Amino acid sequence: MSDNKVILNYDGKSFEYPIVDSTIGDRGIDISKLRDQTGLITLDLGYKNTGATISEITYLDGDKGELFYRGYPIEQIAEKSNFTEVMYLLLHGELPKAEQFSSFENNIKKYNFVADELKKLIDVFPRSAHPMGVLSSLTSALTAFNPKAVDVKSKEELDYASELMIAKFSHLCAWTYRKTQGLPINHGDNSLNYVENFYKMAFRLPNEEFELDPVVVAALDKLLILHADHEQNCSTSTVRMVGSAHTGLFASISSGVSALWGPLHGGANQAVIEMLELIEKDGGDVNKWVAKAKDKNDGFRLMGFGHRVYKNFDPRAKIIKKAADDILGKLGIQDKALDIAMQLEKVALEDEYFIERKLYPNVDFYSGIIYRALGIPTEMFTVMFALGRLPGWIAQWREMRLKGDPIGRPRQIYQGSQLRDYVDIANR
Ligand code: CMC
């Protein structure tokens, strides 16, 4: 190997593959000619070593525990920015100037309503339906109300579709929640900012004046920022893969919602709280549950621990942990689940099994505790994650289409039966 290429010796021949440079972090080997030249393909289950694209949106270093949005460290963004500005940053690549910010915010407000027919769709779901399933269906249904395919060569059309998606999705998230609670559907209030508007739409009771609690709004804003993008994770890769077939934005985002739902991904925030409640009910012996997580014959995993890329503290978890302490303090909430979470974290971080495998608390370990303190029901946690991740999905979808990435179509190594003749049913 030299600096800019890798040499592969195979079958008595030598092949050269160029190295693709990065601005920071992993460089890659461009193997696009590998199969043509050698007849070989690569095998990388779970894509642990595979770069699926070249991106300029988010950078993370899992060993150092660093996360940057468009070059800005997450710590600065979480402290100084707000969710609307972060959405603009992810979509457009730069922090907005004042007039760009107000134009972006005003456009979102312009689309701040959802067609009444969509409400009828909500009515057909049983109240017991999981909100993520409802959200995915409603997101896909947006296509029916906006059937024109986006011409990605037109910046105007692309921005219009992105802002429309952002405006409507907050309604779908709020309505999904209200459905589970049996509450009437609310409409947006354009005097409020994006997060306040969502909060009011979701949580306003029909028989009470609604007051925006600034502590709750600030906490929600921070959580949404921390979830806004995370490069090529499972749901984002799904959005890019679906979009690579030139499927529309709304249908692509709907597939991202479904991918996020899984307990190994965004669904972990719900799974963490359910686990903490289970441990509490079982008497609160965290050592017993840590032992179960280590036992290979026991299917139990410590939810909220471990990450595909972070082999150090998830920087988002550090920020959330501090926010959880602040919010519980400000709201005067004592939460047994938080005590158990602290004990679990301590035991696990000192345990050889977790140290050896570099398993640290991830973003979902603490987010559920904050959501719970804010009065959000457990089944809604992943919907909150989806609302946060939306700008990342859109930014990645736009980037993929604008760069003209080809349709995603992995290959496989086939180990099934060899060619054989069909046997008639009577002779099997
Ligand atoms: N509890 C116990 N053991 C674990 C855990 C855990 N939470 N996570 C990983 N391990 C072990 C695993 O058994 C394996 O051990 P061994 O080498 O002896 O076979 C080793 O650590 C490596 O695990 P892996 O499953 O190969 O790692 P991965 O990169 O494929 O999986 C993960 C990453 C996040 C799916 C996994 O750590 C996990 O299941 N964590 C719990 C679910 C969770 O919290 N998910 C949220 C992720 S962060 C937010 C998001 O992305 O949405």
UniProtKB/TrEMBL annotation:
<dbReference type="InterPro" id="IPR002020">
    <property type="entry name" value="Citrate_synthase"/>
</dbReference>
<keyword id="KW-0816">Tricarboxylic acid cycle</keyword>
<dbReference type="InterPro" id="IPR024176">
    <property type="entry name" value="Citrate_synthase_bac-typ"/>
</dbReference>
<comment type="pathway">
    <text>Carbohydrate metabolism; tricarboxylic acid cycle; isocitrate from oxaloacetate: step 1/2.</text>
</comment>
<dbReference type="GO" id="GO:0036440">
    <property type="term" value="F:citrate synthase activity"/>
</dbReference>
<dbReference type="GO" id="GO:0005737">
    <property type="term" value="C:cytoplasm"/>
</dbReference>
<dbReference type="InterPro" id="IPR016142">
    <property type="entry name" value="Citrate_synth-like_lrg_a-sub"/>
</dbReference>
<dbReference type="Pfam" id="PF00285">
    <property type="entry name" value="Citrate_synt"/>
</dbReference>
<dbReference type="InterPro" id="IPR016143">
    <property type="entry name" value="Citrate_synth-like_sm_a-sub"/>
</dbReference>
<keyword id="KW-0808">Transferase</keyword>
<protein>
    <recommendedName>
        <fullName>Citrate synthase</fullName>
    </recommendedName>
</protein>
<dbReference type="GO" id="GO:0006099">
    <property type="term" value="P:tricarboxylic acid cycle"/>
</dbReference>
<dbReference type="InterPro" id="IPR010953">
    <property type="entry name" value="Citrate_synthase_typ-I"/>
</dbReference>
<feature type="active site">
    <location>
        <position position="307"/>
    </location>
</feature>
<dbReference type="InterPro" id="IPR036969">
    <property type="entry name" value="Citrate_synthase_sf"/>
</dbReference>
<feature type="active site">
    <location>
        <position position="364"/>
    </location>
</feature>
<comment type="similarity">
    <text>Belongs to the citrate synthase family.</text>
</comment>
<dbReference type="InterPro" id="IPR019810">
    <property type="entry name" value="Citrate_synthase_AS"/>
</dbReference>
